[in-house]
Amino acid sequence: MVLRFSMFAAAVLIAGSAYAADSKAVSEEDGKYLDADGNPTYNIQADGTVDWYTYSGFRMYHAECHVCHGPDAMGSTYAPALKDSLKQKNIDYYKFQEIVSSGQQNTAVQGGSASVMPAFGTNLNVMCFIDDLYVYLRARSDDAIGRGRPAKKETKPDAARKYQDECLGPPK
User: Fold this and answer.
1) Do the beta carbons of residue 117 and residue 137 sit within 8 Å?
2) Does the model's pTM come out above 0.85?
3) Domain 2-14+46-168 class in CATH
4) What segment(s) does the record annotate as region Disordered (predicted)?
5) Which DSSP state fits 20?
6) Tens of pLDDT along 54-108?
């Protein structure tokens, strides 16, 4: 786990914050789809079937993020719509990871109060699924999927199951 976060920190420093506008999947590794820059992205089939990671991201988002950011990433009076944030604020994969793991403070006071995104870097229920969250929000940001639980999903890849067991520990 420590190695993953160290590699992440190095990647953030190297990558900068250029937003990859093209979310099209150009490759696939163990059921995870990647864009031309090698960032995780979604893959939605013509019949509406979503890849496992988009579906998992939906589940994790609604378990951990929707309380503040609203159902389906639509925002709330408490926190912004993440559906819009990826594009409007040019939040790329690395910036997303940085904000989620380290938190963020908005010191520009609007409406009488500053906003604070807490750090989730030690929350395994978030960090073990951070790619899934990003993929789901990317699909929502591109209007590639609508509101609500995706009706059809790909089967969970063995690689996803193995990674989950390694990150969270085996089921008890």
Assistant:
1) no
2) no
3) mainly alpha
4) 146-172
5) -
6) 999 999 999 988 888 888 887 777 788 788 888 877 789 999 999 999 988 876 6
